[in-house]
Every structure is written in C-alpha cells, then in structure tokens.
Design goal:
The structure holds two protein chains of two kinds. By secondary structure, chain A is of the alpha/beta class. Chain A has ten helices and ten strands. Chain A has a domain of about 170 residues: Rossmann fold (3-Layer(aba) Sandwich). In chain A, about 40% of the residues lie in helices and about 25% in strands. In chain A, the strands form two sheets. Chain A has a six-stranded mixed sheet, sandwiched between helices. The longest helix of chain A is centred in the last third of the chain and has 18 residues. By secondary structure, chain B is mainly alpha-helical. Chain B has one domain. Helix content of chain B is about 75%, strand content about 0%. Chain B is built from twelve helices and no strands. The chains are: A alpha/beta, B mainly alpha. The interface between A and B is medium-sized, with 26 and 23 residues. Chain A: It comes from Devosia riboflavina. Chain A: This is ABC transporter ATP-binding protein. Chain A: GO terms for molecular function: ATP binding; ATP hydrolysis activity.
Chain lengths: ~250, ~325
C-alpha cells in the first residue's frame, strides 16, 4: 500500500520564461511533519499552491492521498486542509459563523459539534462568539487553523504559519501543530524560511533553491550527521549557494 | 439525492453571498435610492395625471357654462400604465448602477475578505462558485424588482380612477420581467469585471464606462439621441433622422444599444410609444436584452470560475 500522502514527479510551474518550480520530485509519508525550507522566492508557495489545487502545474504530476491535483482535484481537496500565510476570514462575521460556513462547505456532518471539538482542541472556544475583524494576527491564525482542520484532513498545508507572530504566538502555534500531528495523525506540509521552525517541529526536511529540490532527508538523520541547530543552518546555506552569495 | 448533495455547496455559497452583500453599506444605499425613486416615479405619474384631470374638470365647468361641447377627458384617453413611464428612466439610470454595484460586490466582498484561497480548496468545482454568484445576483435583482413592483402595484390599487384590466396587469408583470433582465445585464457586467480586474477600482470603472456608453453614447450614434434627451423616457423615442448613416447604424448597432432597446420595450408595455415611432433595429428589442443577459451572464460565470484563487485580495 502506498504510504505517501504527497507525491510529485517532475512537477514544474513556469511563468513565461521563468520557472518558479523546476522538475520537483518529492514524496511525503503519512504522519510526517515535513518542513519545506527555502529563501523568499524559492518556489515554496508556488509548490503549496499546486498541491492545494489552487494553481495548475505547467508539467509533471502531483498526487495528494493518491489523487491527482489536476485530474481529481475535487477528490484531492477532500483530503487537504490549507492555512495561507496571511489567514483572511470574513471580518464582519463571528469566528463561529466563519467556521460554520467552511465546515458546511467541506461537507462536515454535525458541524456545530465539530466546531466545538476543534475550538476545544485549539484551546480557543472563547473566541467563537467574537467578530473575526477584532482579532489579532495570532488569534486569526488560530481560527485559520481551525477552519483548515474542521473536516479532519489527512494532510495540512501551512504556508509560513508563524510569519508575523510574536514569540509566544509562534510557540503556541508550534505546539498546536505537533499536537495535531500526534493526536489526529495529520500529515503536516509546512513552508518556512525559519530554521528554528524546522528543528523544533518537523520530522523531515526538504530544501528548495530557485525552484529546485536540493536537499531531502529526515531531521533525525540530519541531526545525526550535522548535530545542532546551528549546523542545520550551515547545511541550509551550503545547499542554497546562489541565494546565499546573493544575499551576502 | 445525488444532485441535492452536489448542489449543497452552491446553495451554501448563494446564501453566504446574499448575506455578505446585505451587510454592504454601498449596496444598501443604492438599493434604497432606487426604491425611493420608484416611489417618486409613481408619485410623479399620479401628480401629473391628477393635475391634468383637475384642469380638465375646471374646463368642463367653464365650457358647460359657455354652452360649448365637452371634449373627452385626456386622462381617460391615456393608458394608466403610462403613469409609470418615469420608471423606465430610473431603471436605466440608478437601477443599472445599483445592479453594477451588486454584481461587483458579490465578488469583491470575497476578494476583499481574502477568502478565495480558502473557498477554492474546498471540495467544489470552480464553476460552482460562478453559478452560485450568478444565482445570488439573479435573486438580488429579483428582490429589487419585486420591491419596485409591490410599490407600483400598491399605487394602482390606491388610485381608484386608474383601473387595470387583466391585460394591463400582464403588461406590467412583463415590464418588471424585462426590467429585471435589463438590470441583470449590468449586474453580470459588475460580476465579470469584479472577477477579472486586478484592482477593485478598475473592476468598477469598466462596467460603469460600458453603462455610460450604452446609455448615452450608443443612442447618439444609432438614433441621434443626445444625452439630455436620453434621460427623458418619451423624447428618447423620437425618430432618428432619415439619413443613410442613421439607417445603417440603427440597423447594425441597434441590437447593442441596450438602453434604447429597454426604452422601446418599456414604451410598448407601458403604452407611451409615440404612434409615429419606427423601429429599424435588425432584431427585436426583447431579443437584444435576452441575448445580452445570457451572453454576459455566461462570460461572468466563467470569469468567476477561472479567477486566480491563489490571491487573497486585489493586487495581493
């Protein structure tokens, strides 16, 4: 039985002459917390957009839970949850009304009960009656996470989930991601450019540089081979030479 | 059963879309303005008719005293439906603008909220969103037209001197149907560019420019109707000069001159068509509106289905 939740082969996305993602062949196993690391503009968000069916690839294939994101996009969507970098919801509606709408749209049975369970899991049931427009970035991110897991997806895609959060918000979100993976068995596919995120949250890592996958391994093996977080940073800089030189 | 389950996201999106635009202040203000003008149109029609009637009754007294022959009452010679002729102008002016804003807001509300990526990753087809928005627009326009119809029906029922027979009520019903169709064209235009434009301003500006062209520019080319005359429901139906230029433009461009088509239909249905008016357009006015509404509706639905769903907001 195929245990891969995400599987891409030669996945490519071009905008005119520019290839945002080049021949990406990648697989993520069920239950993994996969950290997709890369500089800004490396092609991480484009990859997530293709895997979440928001963007059609130029060439190559991508399967999510065995369903093609192009030919079986509807089926693929039943298995995914998505939290964009800047979570935006209907500001003039309460958190509960937002969640009810997205739960129904995802075909969740008994949505009210599922919302309560989800908010309890995320420890934010008190937010339910409040207008989303009044939320801080951290609270908005929490409700954004809630809308993405209401239907208990097999794989959760997070695009720079801690971007713009304060240290406490980052820690809370990181803990939630780990709990989500442990308690629900949800596979996590997380874009980030923060090495600290990877070392503390992920079980495996992929590094994207200028649209190409330049490194892929488990965190266990990486730590075995390279040691501490600072070594992980050195590894990252060594596999992304062009950008690193450019940045320097 | 299968169909019911498949339609569930569409129904949900329709109710969500309607609830969202109901909260939009601009939409509410324009809709309110339109309905106020419907009342004004009814009042103006009643007032003008009452004045003519009062003058006629005074003249009758005077002429009776003079022993002269009493002519028939001009009010009774006019169809009571003509009382509503100002409606045609208000529909093509403020009604069309309100429709553009409603159509635009149906899309802009989601784009501004930044929820498109969240919607597009749910198990529904892109076309479901397009269909839901189109149906929501039809419901919103139908509600607007129904309110107008209720106000005008109440006016007729409140004025005992104006009795409508069965044919009159039927013509009035068809007039509202055609008004709804005309408003839908502009609503779909608003929806189309709300989805296709990269900025919110451009998304509103293009349909408004199209509306200006259809209402004021095209009638000038096809029938030599200047913009001021176009605001008058009766003078806008004056015959075009009998030159070869207007013969050709009227025939060829007439089907695209939707404001004129709507006025012709209104004049026919509300009985204020000048007896000498000659329609030179290649296809019937009702067919123009029907084709335009269906065509722009299909394009708008497709534009919504093909929107760039990766972006949470305009120019994001």
């Amino acid at each position: 039985m195929n245990t891969y939740v995400v599987e891409t082969r030669q996945l490519t996305k071009r905008y005119g002459d520019h290839a945002a993602v080049k021949n990406l062949s990648l697989s993520v196993e069920r239950g993994e917390v996969f950290g997709f690391l890369g500089h800004n503009g490396a092609g991480k968000t484009t990859t997530i957009h293709m895997l979440t069916t928001l963007l059609k690839p130029t060439s190559g294939t991508a399967l999510v839970c065995g369903k093609s994101v192009t030919d079986q996009s509807l089926e693929a969507r039943r298995h995914i949850g998505y939290v964009p970098e800047n979570v935006r919801l209907y500001d003039t509606m309460t958190a509960r009304a937002n969640l009810l709408f997205f739960a129904r749209l995802s075909g969740v049975e008994n949505p009210d009960r599922r919302i309560d369970e989800t908010l309890d899991f995320l420890e934010c049931r008190d937010l339910a009656p409040r207008l989303v427009g009044s939320f801080s970035k951290g609270l908005r991110q929490r409700i954004g996470l809630a809308q993405a897991i209401l239907h208990r997806p097999d794989v959760l895609f997070l695009d720079e989930p801690t971007s713009g959060l304060d240290p406490m918000g980052i820690k809370t979100l990181r803990d939630l991601i780990v709990r989500l993976n442990r308690e629900f068995g949800t596979t996590i596919f997380m874009n980030t450019h923060l090495i600290s995120e990877i070392s503390r949250t992920c079980t495996s890592i992929g590094v994207l540089n200028q649209g190409e996958l330049v490194f892929r391994d488990t965190i266990e093996k990486v730590t075995e081979r390279y040691g501490s977080e600072s070594s992980l940073e050195e590894l990252y800089l060594s596999v992304t030479p062009v950008q690193a030189k450019g940045a320097a | 059963m299968g169909n019911t389950a498949a339609n569930a996201p569409i129904r949900l999106l329709i109710s969500q879309s309607l609830a969202t635009i109901a909260r939009e202040r601009t939409v509410a203000l324009l809709a309110l303005l339109f309905l106020v003008l419907v009342v004004v149109a009814a009042y103006l029609g009643w007032s003008a008719t009452s004045t003519v009637n009062a003058i006629y009754l005074r003249s009758v007294d005077y002429m009776t005293a003079q022993g002269q022959t009493i002519p028939s009452n001009p009010v009774l010679d006019t169809s009571p439906l003509a009382l509503l002729r100002n409606m045609a102008t208000y529909v093509s002016l403020i009604g069309a603008l309100a429709a553009i804003v409603v159509g635009h807001q149906l899309i802009a509300s989601d784009r501004k909220a930044g929820t498109m990526p969240l919607l597009a990753t749910r198990p529904m087809r892109g076309i479901d969103l397009g269909i839901a928005k189109a149906v929501a627009l039809v419901i919103a326009i139908a509600a607007l037209v129904t309110f107008a119809a209720v106000i005008n029906t109440a006016t007729f029922l409140a004025l005992p001197e104006f009795r409508l027979d069965g044919a009159g009520w039927s013509k009035l019903a068809v007039f509202y149907g055609m008004s709804g169709l005309y408003l839908l064209v502009f609503g779909f235009l608003g929806m189309w560019f709300g989805a296709a434009a990269k900025s919110e301003t451009v998304g509103l500006l293009i349909p408004v420019t199209v509306w200006l062209t259809l209402t004021f520019v095209l009638p000038q080319i096809t029938s030599n109707i200047n913009p001021v005359a176009a605001l008058n429901p009766v003078s806008a139906l004056a015959d075009a000069p009998a030159s070869a230029f207007f013969q050709v433009t009227g025939w060829a461009l007439g089907p695209f001159s939707l404001a004129e088509a709507y006025r012709v239909i209104s004049a026919q249905l509300l009985d204020f068509m000048p007896p000498t008016y000659v329609d030179r357009v290649a296809i019937p006015a009702a067919a123009s509106l029907l084709i335009a509404a269906a065509g722009v509706g299909a394009i708008a639905t497709r534009a919504v289905a093909r929107m760039d769903m990766t972006k949470g907001d305009y120019d994001a």
